[in-house]
Design a protein that fits this description.
UDP-galactose 4-epimerase, domain 1, seven-stranded parallel beta sheet, single chain, alpha/beta, 9 helices, Rossmann fold, two-stranded parallel sheet, globular
Length: 298
């Protein structure tokens, strides 16, 4: 296939571009060329909000839009594309209000989530704009994505704690649920949608939820360590020393499971993520959690 991936230089879009390129597809990436490019992909250099005819004369079997954050960006891309067959948008679980009954289902009403704010409402507008113009498009709503190329300070922070032989400071009792999805499984799911062409157009994806404590222990185990936990109670804002909001939720992924029942186990995905992290620490967008822990928790 001839595939267009928006982005292609950071985390999810980079992994997707590399994955399909390695499968032998003809992959184009659309980005500003401000970061190193993958080998074996074709660069279309532009800002997605000012494509200026760069897609003229090009046909794509599949468009995978990873970087659309609002309706205007969807319209700009669609106005610039001359022809394509398949369209995928990587959206977010942030489109569901936190007040809904768990687990969130694809048929639930979308709306503002107080934890995600404009990010979630902009994603809703992008989804609506896409389906209005391309009714056959697929929209994928993941929870927290993880894996190789993840430059966010999530599993990387816990890996660093493990490498320092630190105890792990656990918000409250550590029972808050988190839900993850391995970026490689996201690519496999796209492949299955292309193969099966289901009538359903919007899909939640994700592994079974785990607790904070289980996730942190799995990250330590990927480093070859076993954590000692220190519980943090009281009014301390957990985002000062922990990568996630004090907000536990989960997605109903039953429709995904019918299409892709076998997912990468969390242990396997974190092992791969740590292998990449060890050689790419400079790529991580670190935060000052350690300073806060030193000054407020120790």
């Amino acid at each position: 296939m001839k595939i267009l991936v928006t982005g292609g230089t950071v985390f999810v879009s980079k992994y997707i571009a590399e994955y399909f390129s390695n499968k032998g597809h003809d992959v184009y990436v659309l980005n500003r060329n401000t970061k190193p490019q993958l080998p074996n992909v074709k660069l279309i250099q532009c800002n997605r909000n000012a494509i200026n005819g760069k897609l003229k004369g090009l046909f794509f079997d599949t468009v995978i839009d990873v970087t659309a954050y609002c309706a205007e960006e969807i319209h700009c891309l669609l106005d610039s594309l001359e022809s394509f067959d398949n369209f995928f948008m990587i959206s977010s679980s942030a489109v569901y209000p936190e007040t809904l009954k768990l687990p969130f289902n694809e048929n639930d009403i979308c709306g503002k989530n107080k934890f995600w704010g404009d990010y979630g409402t902009n994603k809703i507008q992008a989804e609506n704009a896409l389906l209005h113009r391309v009714p056959h498009a697929y929209i994928i709503r993941p929870p927290y994505l993880y894996g190789e190329y993840n430059n966010l300070y999530r599993e990387a922070f816990v890996f660093e704690c493990a490498e320092r032989d630190m105890p792990f400071y656990l918000p409250k009792d550590g029972a808050m649920p988190l839900q993850f999805f391995y970026v490689g499984d996201l690519c496999r799911f796209i492949e299955m949608l292309l193969k099966l062409r289901p009538v359903q157009k919007i899909f939640n994806v994700g592994n079974a939820p785990v607790t904070i404590k289980e996730w942190a222990a799995a990250c330590y185990n990927a480093v070859g360590k076993t954590p000692t936990f220190i519980n943090v109670f009281g009014e301390i804002e957990q985002r000062n020393y922990f990568p996630f909001y004090d907000y536990g939720y989960c997605l109903d992924t039953s429709a995904q499971s019918e299409i892709l029942p076998e997912l990468t186990p969390l242990k396997t995905g974190l092992t791969r993520a740590y292998k990449w992290y060890k050689n790419n620490k400079s790529a991580i967008n670190s935060k000052n959690y350690f300073d806060f822990i030193k000054n407020n928790l120790i």
